[in-house]
Amino acid sequence: MVAAVETGVDAANATLSRVEQIKKFTILPEIWLPGSAYLTPTGKLKRAPIVTHYAQTIETMY
Predict the structure, then answer these.
(1) Is the domain of 22 the same as that of 42?
(2) What is residue 31's DSSP assignment?
(3) Could you tell me if 3 and 21 lie in one domain?
């Protein structure tokens, strides 16, 4: 799974400028469904709950 994601990230990074590239990522163990605590019914991110719940995970990436 990680190798497949890395391949996709590398392919995307090849088309982006250096400042737009993904440097680090984390694969989360749960699936976010539309209408959940992290996505609106239309699939948009709810940033505040994500930042609150995943603060430690986000911090370890920097």
Answers:
(1) no
(2) -
(3) yes
> How far is Cα of residue 39 from the mean position of the Cα atoms in its chain?
13
- Looking at residue 11, its pLDDT comes to 97
Q: What is the mean pLDDT of residues 27-46?
A: 94
What distance in Å separates the CA atoms of residue 42 and residue 45, rounded to the nearest whole number? 9
DSSP line for 44-60: -B-HHHHHHHTHHHHHH
Q: How far apart are CA 56 and CA 3, in angstroms?
A: 24
What average pLDDT does this structure show over 30-34? Answer: 93
- Same domain (yes/no): 20, 47: no
What pLDDT, on the 0 to 100 scale, is given for residue 62? 85
Q: Are residues 37 and 19 in the same domain?
A: no
**Structural domain of residue 2, as residue ranges?**
1-27
